[in-house]
Amino acid sequence: MQRFSQIFGQQKCKVIGMIHVDGLPGTPNYAGKWKQTIEKAIYEAELYKKHQLDAVLIENMHDIPYVPERLLGPEIVACMTRVGQAVRQIMPPHVPCGVQVLACGNKQALAIAKASQLQFIRSEGFVFGHVADEGYTDACAGDLLRYRRLIDAQDVLIFTDLKKKHSSHSITADVSLLETAHAAEFFLTDGIIITGTATGQAASPKDLEELSGRIKVPLIIGSGVTKDNVDLYFDGAQAMIIGSHFKRHGKWQEELSEEAVADFMRRICELRMSK
What we know:
This protein is α/β, with parallel strands linked by helices. It has helices at residues 2-8, 34-50, 74-90, 106-116, 141-150, 177-186, 205-211, 231-234, 258-274, and strands at 14-20, 55-59, 97-100, 120-123, 130-132, 135-137, 157-161, 167-168, 191-194, 219-221, 239-242. Belongs to the BtpA family.
């Protein structure tokens, strides 16, 4: 918790805004407009800066269909590093910036964070294997933390998904969410993320209740938070990642809605003042 507080500050329930980068070169959705891709990420960073979000998270969400880590090309790392540098220059120094590389590009994300001076990554498959829509995901904690040491990136926090969305967890059905969380703690995670079953789907309040106050690392809500349900998560979580709710019509594929961002942050201010 101490490292998290040092980087993210003392505000209650931090708000982390998603920057869904347009399809990158070499992926099916790439539109051939690399300069515009960077400019769009900069625009979204500026909007988040204007509304005083606590952190931002950059992700190659539009690179569908995703490929497993072994098939991620150097162009993805190079382009995400360029975007990371651009976003880092926009956000104030005290505002943490992070990166996730889909799918399971955890070492790639660490390298990007190191090069772009980002403060955290979101990692898939940290503990326990599972089957995702891009294939089998194996546990990576041991390899990933050794790589972090190898590239001198110990100052980059690793937040890890538990029983990740868009995945089947039947092979670990006999392992509870709390047991999974304790395994991630034992394997030195810097923070735990819980989600719904798919992008934009709300995390179960029962899952939050099962973990809240029973783990020693920060607990982060990774999907489905809106201004209408944020009360359910505000007291039990240390942070929340907001993506779909900040988009037009609440759909992650749409453009960022400044009105949605402003409304949500007003609600957060109200909650913080009332506690």
